Automatic annotation (TrEMBL):
SUPFAM superfamilies: P-loop containing nucleoside triphosphate hydrolases. This is RimM N-terminal domain-containing protein. Gene3D superfamilies: P-loop containing nucleotide triphosphate hydrolases. GO terms for molecular function: ribosome binding. InterPro entries: P-loop_NTPase, RimM, RimM_N. One of its GO terms (biological process) is maturation of SSU-rRNA.
Length: 111
């Protein structure tokens, strides 16, 4: 199996980031992968996440990666998708779902 096959993109809504402020708005350090398109090709690079937290007013995260030590290095990874293993995704409330977890579910519309 391809090493990347078990990685999932982790997207959250603005509301979810706001709800997680303080409680679970911080993510655990560890290995992450950044997926970006460069020169017309998709590239995936491995990074060590030092720390991260949800930005309370924007649909974004504030993160620190090992080896990204200045603004020029940070600009190179702006817009990259952060890939995480499913078990490393931030906790969510009981009434929240990751959109990826809903793929393939049957939908019933009631009137």
């Amino acid at each position: 199996m391809n090493k990347l096959a078990c990685l999932l993109p982790s997207w959250i809504s603005k509301a979810s980031a706001h709800q997680r402020r303080g409680r679970a708005g911080r993510v655990q350090p560890g290995t992450r992968w950044l997926r970006a398109r460069a020169a017309g090709k998709q590239q995936v690079r491995e990074f060590e996440l030092v720390r991260g937290r949800a930005h309370t007013r924007k649909k974004s995260w504030i993160v620190s990666f090992d080896g990204v030590n200045n603004l020029d290095e940070a600009r190179k990874i702006v817009g990259s998708a952060v890939l995480v293993k499913a078990r490393d995704r931030p906790e969510i409330e009981d009434d929240e779902f990751y959109s990826l977890d809903l793929v393939g579910m049957r939908v019933i519309v009631k009137f």
